[in-house]
Amino acid sequence: MPFCYLNFPSARDDLLADVLAGLAACPKSIPPKYFYDEAGCQLFEAICRQPEYALCRIEQALMASRLGDIAAATGGVDCIVEPGAGDCMKVRRLLEVLRPSQLVVMDIAGNALATAAEKLAVDYPGVAITAIGMDFVHDLEAAAPHFSSGRRLVYYPGSSIGNFSPAEVAGLLARFRKLAGDNGLLLIGFDLKKDPELLHRAYNDAAGVTAAFNLNLLARLNRELGADFDLSRFRHYAFYNPVEGRIEMHLVSLEDQLVHVSGKGFQFNSGETLHTENSYKFRCDEFSKIAKTAGWDLSGEWEKDGFGVQLYA
Ligand SMILES: C[S@@+](CC[C@H](N)C(=O)[O-])C[C@H]1O[C@@H](n2cnc3c(N)ncnc32)[C@H](O)[C@@H]1O
User: Residue 71 belongs to what domain range?
Assistant: First the structure.
């Protein structure tokens, strides 16, 4: 079966523009999609192996134990679409049980995606695989011509949806609805609200891998934009904000300092934060209410140890 890799217009220009705008804002922020250069992708995989970050392992265990029920609830699909597919490991299970004729995977980390998708193509020769290096938040609709006809399932695991605010979730799910079509499906995994201490430990692992992941963002800006961040003068700081229902990840400046990016100077005061990520946590009923506003009806729900997977039609 054919394997095809497409690279949509590079996100490189966006990186510079978004970083300059984010550093000029108050409070300073940089979108989390920029974590994922080559080093960032590897660090994310290492985070998933940390004892404190159980999210990935629990989701995998849940999917493994309920796969038959989930597959039966879908009623069969012809095409699986996975935005932000990363290392493409999670979709393997679905390919085995749903046996679609096409898989479309998308990720902003195009090179890592291409490598992972090529391995999939070898292991699943019966599936036509299209990998697209793209920012799906910008360009989702531009991917539509690459889907075959037939019933589509949008698969969005890993609690990646938690990077979006509830209002943004509603907007993104509405776009997934259009992409899936009238008879399409959505299978989505998200982290549930739980003991803040557990959440706190998950984003502050003892080995410092999440801290390295967060700081790698500055290293990336040094590498790709010629910035002059001194990583030893910033501290990873992550905490659960129970009012907003989200983990917030920040890089806090340890002193007054001036940093340059692409010839522009940005002042950081001691204690000032650069906000790098939100990871919203949901209750199942909260999430299905948002999904309903985006045109999705809940048709299946599975839960394990603080992680939820829902199927929508
Ligand atoms: C937290 S990882 C999850 C990877 C995988 N889905 C999983 O569950 O293991 C998020 C992935 O989404 C990708 N990503 C984040 N924002 C994106 C965007 N706007 N467009 C495309 N890919 C994006 C990242 O490069 C990364 O591979």
Answer: 1-214+290-313
- As a whole number of angstroms, the distance between CA 57 and CA 158 comes to 10
Within a domain: 267: no
Residue 123 inside a domain? The answer is yes
Does a structural domain hold residue 115? yes
Residue 171's domain is classified under what CATH number? 3.40.50.150
Rg for the chain, CA atoms, rounded: 19
Name the residue of 36, 42, 91, 169 to mutate for ligand 1: max ligand atoms within 8 A of Cβ: 36
pLDDT in 10s for each residue of the chain, 313 residues: 689 999 987 555 589 999 999 999 999 999 999 999 999 999 999 999 999 999 999 999 999 999 999 999 999 999 999 999 999 999 999 999 999 999 999 999 999 999 999 999 999 999 999 999 999 999 999 999 998 889 999 999 999 999 999 999 999 999 999 999 999 999 999 999 999 999 999 999 999 999 999 999 999 999 999 999 999 999 999 999 999 999 999 999 999 999 999 999 999 999 999 999 999 999 999 999 999 999 999 999 999 999 999 999 9
pTM of the model: 0.97
Cross-strand partners of 57 = none
Q: Is residue 281 part of a domain?
A: no
Give distance in angstroms: CA of 128 to centre of ligand 1: 21
Closest atom of ligand 1 to 189 CA is 8
Total number of domains constituting the chain: 1
Nearest alpha carbon, ligand 1 atom 7: 158
